[in-house]
Amino acid sequence: MGKIKAAILGSGNIGTDLMYKILKTDGAMELALMAGIDPESEGLKRAAEAGISTTDRGIDGVLETEDIRIVFDATSAKAHMAHAPRLKEAGIIAIDLTPAAVGPYVVPAINLGDHLEVDNVNMISCSGQATTPLVYAVNRIAPVKYSEIIATISSVSVGPGTRQNLDEFTMTTANACQKIGGADTARAVPIINSAEPPIMMNNTVYAVLHKEADEAAVLESIGKMVADVQRYVPGYRLKAKPYIDVRHTPWGELPTVIILNEVEGAGDFFPNYAGNLDIMTAAAQQVGEQFASHLLKKGGVIV
């Protein structure tokens, strides 16, 4: 059979950048539809110019289009809560780019192939995609008692949808650092920076360990993880060499891994400084391709 047909639900910035990433990739997935609710949105106009079918009827337009097997939901957490059961009933796989967390969390560098039989997966958040791999990299060598991530992103790269979802953003990101990253407890702190010129996405990760660990092994694990993420986000990098420092914590003096990370976008639609948005769409595209390949092997059947 041919490629698996996919649709993007949400014609805003995230949906538009994702469109360009899918179009430049010759894989198992074909972008067949861009859906929005504003007929004058730039995303729908750009999709039409690129030869992609469009609809301004949102989820209804998606469900009325034949042969769609995968939908990327780039709307909002509240909207996805309403979309999820309708997509499930239609037998369509939902790749959720909102913090709704209806389905299991997915980070391509960690568990890309673990949830290919489910019908809804969650891409967590931009900081979740950027920092969960780093917590996981530490935890697989030395168990993490507590992780705290501070995500600093440019104000101009934070749209109204993200601002409305900040509460879900912090909860979902912290949960991912526990459920996927492996930390016993976790906290996520977003900082929206209005500096001009706009800054790139910067993340600070603190991973408090239960006990002393082999620093060389921890650093090697972090380096390998950075290389894994760079396969789909080339601008993902460390800003400095990570290190372990004994610090005062609520549990006493404990070794703490400190990691400084920066994410530069690919410039497909967003400016390069908007790495926070770019890492979400790059990760989602990777997950979509994996689902499409899996469906092709099964003859296109969704179980």
Automatic annotation (TrEMBL):
Residues 5-118 form the Semialdehyde dehydrogenase NAD-binding domain. Its EC number is 1.2.1.10. This is Acetaldehyde dehydrogenase. It comes from the Bacteria. It comes from Planococcus citreus. GO terms for molecular function: acetaldehyde dehydrogenase (acetylating) activity; NAD binding. NAD(+) binds at S11, G12, N13, I14, S157, V158, G159, P160, G161, T162, R163, Q164, N165, N276. The keyword Lipid biosynthesis does not apply. The active site is at C126 (acyl-thioester intermediate).
